Amino acid sequence: MKKKASLRQKVYTSLRFDIVSGKLPGGTRITENFIADALKVSRTPVREALQKLAQEKLILSIPKAGYLIEDLSDNDIQDLFTTRMEIEQIAFHKAIDYITLDELKNLDNNLEATKAAIKSGEDFKITELDIEFHAIIYRAARSKALFRVCKNLSDLTTKYRHGLNLVKSLPTEMLQHHIQIYQAVLAKDTDKISQALVLHTRHAQSHVVSVMRKLRSDSFSHEDF
Amino acid sequence: MKKKASLRQKVYTSLRFDIVSGKLPGGTRITENFIADALKVSRTPVREALQKLAQEKLILSIPKAGYLIEDLSDNDIQDLFTTRMEIEQIAFHKAIDYITLDELKNLDNNLEATKAAIKSGEDFKITELDIEFHAIIYRAARSKALFRVCKNLSDLTTKYRHGLNLVKSLPTEMLQHHIQIYQAVLAKDTDKISQALVLHTRHAQSHVVSVMRKLRSDSFSHEDF
DNA sequence: CAGGCACCAATTGTATACAATAAGTGTTTG
DNA sequence: CAAACACTTATTGTATACAATTGGTGCCTG
């Protein structure tokens, strides 16, 4: 029984998916009319969806000249991952105090599902489960303001997260990190959580940068001159 | 040499000011047409400005029924202040490593200006300088992602910050806190910064809640029955 | 009198037309 | 040839008209 979504919402969801999934690569230029024609709607809902995405920093609005899919520099990507990790630590530490048995069970289920997704090679699902794992803990911190910040930072990293599955050993390694974090949460061991989270993030961070470099050089070699 | 602002930008700035300054109290209901008529523009830029404010959580959008100026519960206000403080600590600790002499000088000037504003009783300026003091340090942390988060949280607290000047002793006390923080930054003493920041925030926090309670009961007694 | 049904008004949601602006392009002129 | 100027075009910015949905109000009916 989901209520009808507005066109703005549909356009937003659709564009957002295309951006974070990498279907619209960083640097791509789009215009209001282009999207409106593609989705067979008027400019109004498109325009509003684009403004929302711009505010979330997923795209860049250039007055009178269109929009660009955000393409962060290596430094900005690292900054993003580091900031996310530092703020997540706060959430994780709080979660220890409030997390329920149900939520712990959800974490456990998530780990099992991830294992299955790795076995069957469902890359997209692996990423989704990764994001959900973290989100469960954001929620458990019982702070609206903190949840909002964490979710936003998580969203911003999502598009870079997808590429990580290309490195074949990585999903398994990251699952191990999640298991460590889960156990540290179970044990209510703050230091261990921080330690595992820092490891987890640094690991992702270094691979993201190299994967992005690879993707960038690949796309260069495909260009026509 | 500021370039012309779009109507959307003007509407946004104007509404935003009215909200954070308390001119539009929490709980007030507004509609697109009401604002459009008041500012003599069409609904389009108004609508876009309202959506931006809604995304910043300064107002609440209720489909087909208008917009409400956000009115946080005491718990949500406390949560907001706590979260802001916890994340600010990260920024303050980073700032130690990167802050320049110029920026330290800016902090010093800010303290002097605040002292003057307190003496002359310019409440609005006191609040502005308070916000700027913190913003200088956000910037000095040299992290785009962290800056964005801190600024957003600071914005959300602004409307509650204004009421604090009503408590006559408070501006002076908060200036003392800023001086302590300034000295701790000068000394590059992480622990002292955290300590001063926690004190600063808890202090503001407890007064905000009592001031909001007072304001709420005042406005009740003015209502007609 | 109570409950529901139909209508009406208010409000946001969407489409479209038009305005303004900025960038690019070609041409003209020194 | 280079620089500047005007012209065209692509794009966002704004206004307005219309659609859809919601909430309320009053009437009708049992």
Q: What is this structure's SSE topology?
A:
2 copies of one chain form a homodimer.
Chain A: H1 7-20, E1 29-30, H2 32-39, H3 43-55, E2 59-62, E3 66-69, H4 74-98, H5 101-119, H6 123-140, H7 144-162, H8 170-186, H9 190-222
Antiparallel strand pairs in A: 1-3, 2-3
Chain A binds a DNA duplex (30 and 30 nucleotides) through residues 6-8, 31-33, 41-45, 47-48, 61-66.
Which tags fit this structure?
homodimer, 225 residues, mainly alpha, three-stranded antiparallel sheet, 9 helices, 3 strands, 4% strand, globular, disordered C terminus, DNA-binding
Cross-sheet strand order for the largest sheet of chain A? 1-3-2
* Terminal-residue CA separation of chain A: 52 Å
Enumerate the spans of chain A where pLDDT stays under 50 for 5 or more consecutive residues.
220-225
Helix content of chain A: over 70%
Discrete helix count of chain A: 9
Assembly category: homodimer
What percent of residues of chain A are in strands? under 5%
